[in-house]
Amino acid sequence: MTAILTEETRERDKIARLSRSLYERGLTAGSSGNISVRLSDGWLLTPTNSCLGELDPARISKLDWQGTVLAGDPPSKEAFLHRSMYEVRPKAGAIVHLHSTHSAAVSCLCGLDPANCIPPLTPYFVMKIGRLPLVPYHRPGDKALGEVIKTLAPKNSAVLLANHGPVVSGADLEGAIYASEELEETAKIFLMLRNAPTNCLNAEQIEELKVAFKLDI
């Protein structure tokens, strides 16, 4: 008889499996990055100083919404960042924060539009990310970063932390990861096109996408 897995067990296993895929494809390195998933009775977050390529599902942190650790190892020091985004995006089921190479490189550039720091180069970027505001630099672990996230995340599913990397939410873990991957690919294209004449999607084309795919951007 096949055992019925609980919601928490399924999500723990999924975090470990998909995190390993991100690590093996070079989208995260060392112990950088953290991933979380909303549960019906709290939320899961990858542990502090853990490698996303070597997660033990049973040791992934489980927290309540006051930040109390209910199970697993101590959570990432950036737990407040995830919780801030969940608070203002009630439909978000998962959040992915990576230090992926090209996205982090873009976050270090001068002259970015702080309201939308990567232009609408492809329809897929518009569909999965929409706008990408730039969050001013804060040192890692600075709780003030959470307050800035709260001001930007209600109308944006993703933000780019200056000199750091992206934070991307999604309806579920797969959605958040797919959007993170699309962001990384678009960041790579953006860097390749620097100083080259470029055609971006215009307002009419973006509006067509919003209507066709019922985008909330």
Describe this entry's structure for a reader:
This protein is an alpha+beta fold. It has a single domain, classed as 3-Layer(aba) Sandwich (L-fuculose-1-phosphate Aldolase), CATH 3.40.225.10. It has 7 helices and 8 strands, in the order αββββαβααβαββαα.
What is the strand and helix layout of this fold?
Elements: H1 7-24, E1 34-39, E2 42-45, E3 61-63, E4 69-71, H2 79-88, E5 94-97, H3 101-107, H4 123-128, E6 134-135, H5 144-152, E7 158-161, E8 165-170, H6 173-192, H7 203-212
Parallel strand pairs: 6-7
Antiparallel strand pairs: 1-2, 1-5, 2-3, 3-4, 5-8, 7-8
Helix pairs in contact: 2-5, 3-6
The CATH class is Alpha Beta
Give helix % range: 25-40%
Total helices: the number is: 7
CATH superfamily placement:
Class II aldolase/adducin N-terminal domain
- Mean pLDDT value: 96
Tally of DSSP β-strands: 8
Overall tally of domains: 1
CATH topology: L-fuculose-1-phosphate Aldolase
Supply the key terms:
217 residues, 8-stranded mixed β-sheet, 7 helices, 8 strands, 15% strand, globular
Summarize this entry quickly.
The chain is α+β, with helices and mostly antiparallel strands. The protein has 7 helices and 8 strands.
